[in-house]
Amino acid sequence: MPYSINDGERMIKAARAAVELHLSTTKFNIKSVERYLSDLYENAAVFVTLEHFPTGTPRGSSGYVKAEQPLHQAVVNAAVASTEDMRYVPVSHLEFEHLIVEVSLLSQLERITSRTKSSISKAIMLGRHGLHIEYGYHSATFLPQFITANGWSVEEALDGLCIAAGLKEHLWKSGSVKLFKFTTQRFREISPRGPVEEITTE
To answer: What is the CATH number of domain 110-182?
Structure first.
């Protein structure tokens, strides 16, 4: 990071094309879409989010918190997976015409070690930081915009993160749990198939 608005437009285009092909054909070849981003080969952590327009209702979000695959692959894979987010009914081909595509590029995870109320409040900035938790085989990730949309406080977001990971809601206070924060660079369609904008956080 950071990527240009042109890069963001191409990521959105690739993500939308991947979803369309995935929903419309059983012979989808990921390489046919990756060509949009063939020059973006560095490893990256990426999430793709689908949202109903104009209601803003979430319809799916999926991705990778660690940069373990090339960006052109991560965007396409995350886009396809977002259509089958287990929290929602699978996205249909007809419905997709009414959905906005958003791509979030994640910074490297930053470990949060101190768990006191004052240190947590200083470490996590609502609207800027996303959160990730790991405990054994359990894990969950909240993008910054997901926390903001729910109107949570820092502690409410951390409790929700634990629940999303299948843990007791206050377990984040334990030193045995790995807790991380990250920032994002976000690109988003203004309307379905419309212009792409970069969402900035002050």
So the answer is: 3.30.1490.150
What homologous superfamily does CATH list for 5-106+184-199?
Hypothetical protein ph0010; domain 1 (3.30.700.20)
User: Could you give the count of Cα atoms lying within 13 Å of 127 in the half-sphere of its Cβ?
Assistant: 5
Average pLDDT over residues 153-181: 96
CB 125 within 8 A of CB 147: no
Q: Are 105 and 131 in contact (CB under 8 A)?
A: no
Give the separation between CA 179 and CA 139, rounded to whole angstroms. 10
| Residue-range domain boundaries for the chain | 5-106+184-199, 110-182
**Beta-bridge partner residues of 61:** 49
**pTM of the full structure:** 0.94
Percentage, residues of the chain above pLDDT 70: 99
52's CB contacts (< 8 A; 6+ apart) are 58, 59, 98, 99, 100
